[in-house]
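Priority: medium. Attachment 1 of 2:
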């Protein structure tokens, strides 16, 4: 998302659960109800919400329940938390558009945003800070970025 024109800020965090101010360690227990998420602040004069949502659906697998790649558990579910009816409508429409890109059914949860908790500092800007140090970045995130570059959604670095 950071490479998409018009994105002002991306904050990694947790949402959708019942534990207040969860830690990463608590999230990993799979008992908090939270998902690992990002809050995306953008300039709607530069990029439309619909585009941000379309990038969301292209940049991960929205067809696997509680899983992204080798990462499994409810904290890895595909989810969009909306703040108002307009965002809910846009998310639902984006899910319909995304069906054309995937053979399997879309399982992305679309739910009202109740609370967002920023993740710990070491989770922020993780790929950019760790791409040369952590193999996870090149094995999992690198191909996602390459897919977005190939589709012309973002530019290569």
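Attachment 2 of 2:
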């Amino acid at each position: 998302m950071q490479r998409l024109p018009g994105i002002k800020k991306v904050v990694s965090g947790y949402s959708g659960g019942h534990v207040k101010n969860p830690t990463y360690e608590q999230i990993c227990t799979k008992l908090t109800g939270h998902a690992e998420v990002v809050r995306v602040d953008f300039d709607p004069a530069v990029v439309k919400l619909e585009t941000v949502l379309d990038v969301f659906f292209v940049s991960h697998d929205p067809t696997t329940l509680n899983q992204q790649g080798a990462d499994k558990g409810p904290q890895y579910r595909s989810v969009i938390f909306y703040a108002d009816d307009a965002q809910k409508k846009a998310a639902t429409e984006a899910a319909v558009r995304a069906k054309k890109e995937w053979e399997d059914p879309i399982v992305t949860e679309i739910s009202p945003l109740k609370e967002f908790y920023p993740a710990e500092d070491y989770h922020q800007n993780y790929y950019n800070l760790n791409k040369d140090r952590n193999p996870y970045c090149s094995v999992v995130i690198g191909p996602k970025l390459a897919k977005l570059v190939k589709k012309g959604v973002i530019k290569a670095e």
